[in-house]
């Protein structure tokens, strides 16, 4: 009988064997639960870091925007200008005031505006310089050139025009604030975008006049600020 069905001792041994497997599985479950808890805590900590980064970035953006508005709000209508809250771009939107058609020389009215605007603009940004990557003078054109030009020819002709205009602006500003020339040289760039960033009307068509503009854009060094915050949280 024992040979056919096995002894009672072997049953007990079998029971002990399954009890050991059960304990092992329970132990593994506890290990996995512990790993999950540690992972969740790490994820929560990382999420908190991301939240702190977002808050710091937003506060800096809002601070710069509010400082610009406080300083220049009353001048914007007179200058035909506007400040974009999302990009911190100070846009001069009156092409007839800025340059003659197809020319890169600054018109006298625009130089008068820059005489007033630029020293004050630098002063507004001074408390935020540690958080700035650069100030970019951006030249933008419409997509138009002449009726005989292809789209590609118009684009590159406008590229040359927009680049020439921003260089003219930077050249004029370089000696406007003599005590800031070193900072200007290292932190202000002149860039021409041609017609790559058009302003569109509500119906989706190009707004030719608004597309022709010069912008001063404060670009924050968000990547460096993010790194500092993450390191401080460790």
Number of strands: 5
Order of helices and strands: HHHEEHHEHHEHEH
Task: Quote the distance from N terminus to C terminus.
Answer: 69 Å
The overall pLDDT, averaged over residues, is 84
Which strand order do you get reading across the main beta sheet? 1-2-5-3-4
Q: What's the architecture in CATH terms?
A: 2-Layer Sandwich
User: Low-confidence spans: pLDDT under 50, at least 5 residues?
Assistant: none
CATH superfamily: OmpA-like domain
Approximately what portion of the residues adopt beta-strand conformation?
A: 5-15%
Q: What does the radius of gyration come to?
A: 32 Å
CATH fold node name:
60s Ribosomal Protein L30, Chain: A
Mind explaining what this structure looks like?
- The structure is a single chain.
- By secondary structure, the protein is α+β, with helices and mostly antiparallel strands.
- The protein has one domain: 60s Ribosomal Protein L30, Chain: A (2-Layer Sandwich).
- 61% of the residues lie in helices and 13% in strands.
- A five-stranded mixed β-sheet has the order 1-2-5-3-4.
- A hairpin with a 4-residue loop joins strand 1 and strand 2 (89-92).
- The mean pLDDT is 84.
